[in-house]
Design brief:
The protein is an alpha/beta fold and about 425 residues long. The protein has helices at about 10-20, 25, 50-60, 80-85, 90, 105-120, 135-150, 160-170, 190-200, 220-230, 330-360, 385-395, 425-435; strands at about 125, 150-155, 175-180, 205-210, 235-240, 255-260, 275-280, 290-295, 300-310, 375-380, 400, 415.
Length: about 425
Amino acid sequence: MRYLPKSDAERRQMLDEIGARSLDDLFAHLPEPVRLNRALDIAPGRSEYEIVDYFNKLGAQCGNYPSFLGAGVYRHYRPVLCDVVVSRGEFLTSYTPYQAEIAQGSLTTIFEFQTMVCQLTGMDVANASMYDGSTAVPEAALMAMRVTGRERIVVARAVHPEYRAVLDTNARNREMSVVEFAYDASTGLSDLAALEAAMDNQTAAVIMQSPNFFGGVESVKAAAEIAHKHGALLVLVFTEAVSLGLLKPPCEADIVCGELQSFAISPSYGGPFAGVIATKEKFLRQMPGRLAGQTKDSNGNRAFCLTLSTREQHIRREKATSNICTNQALIALMATVFMTVYGKKGLRELATQNLSKAHYLGGQLARKFSAPYFNELVATPRRAAGLVNDELLGQGIVGGLDLGRFYPELSGSLLLCATEMSQRADMDKVAEAINRA
């Protein structure tokens, strides 16, 4: 009865009401060829405990392998409290908070989320979240175009290649020109001389990632100076949010966008995740998505409301700042609980653990690039990257990313990630496999 809401007696009552003798009589008007006059070719039904047992056995086959694969999606510990909170019916089943008077709980969590993102990024204002980091990047580019009145975007080649692909897709049918600039072959950082050469008086924004796709920590201040000298904005992207617990907030940037998957959001084969956009107060009205604000009710009590929601669903299309119709409220709530649980000191300690473990691993490897790194690095194996990963998988370990997939010139190099979940014994096995001729 849990999954079939109508009993045989209820079906009989419904048929009697409409004057049909049976289900066959109900569907008698359908042509014979479209009727399925046989049993479905599926296994017999199972009870709930049999289904749970079936999936537990399938899950055991997958194993809980230690993973050194990062590249934009990271394996971190997820505090139990996150699922306890987001599983409450008030959050799990709620719809978008149009009616503030009955959605104060949802609006409160969004307001807290925005506040914490501002503290994390050093920006003045943040929106209620975006779909994910990849869609936040083109939204930030479009925002910069509205602010500057220009249509040219200069993006670092060291930005996540999938983020750049989403940006290119958005540019395809818009008046947006996207130009890439190179990274330095020795450091793995964005080549600032190449950035300077790529700039002109029609550039709306420079898009840079830090830590970048290779794990290197970029010089945000230097990039901002180049962008501002040419009248452009600097958009700073992040994929590993834990790094913000240790690195200086990118205050020199004009727009910060990125991905909060690291904050208690399961990798889940690639989503759903929660992206963010944060910016300076003077650019507030060009920010996409929605924003929850604080006010007072008729009795003078603290209350919350949707302060801005400049999207097509609400205003004329030509006035909209985005066609994104929602935010990732439930997933963003996970990140909010995560930030609440860890706090400033806890997040710094977590980031320090990530840094220490990555440098323990990196200390045993021949690194491709010399730049300072957080918890990702590029290693140069002494044999084919695929062979290294196959050997590791045979030991029950997920290896790194062969960069040849996105950067042909780096074919054979492995992008590796170590987090607080990485164990010393597993890191030693990875290093041994990479260093073996």
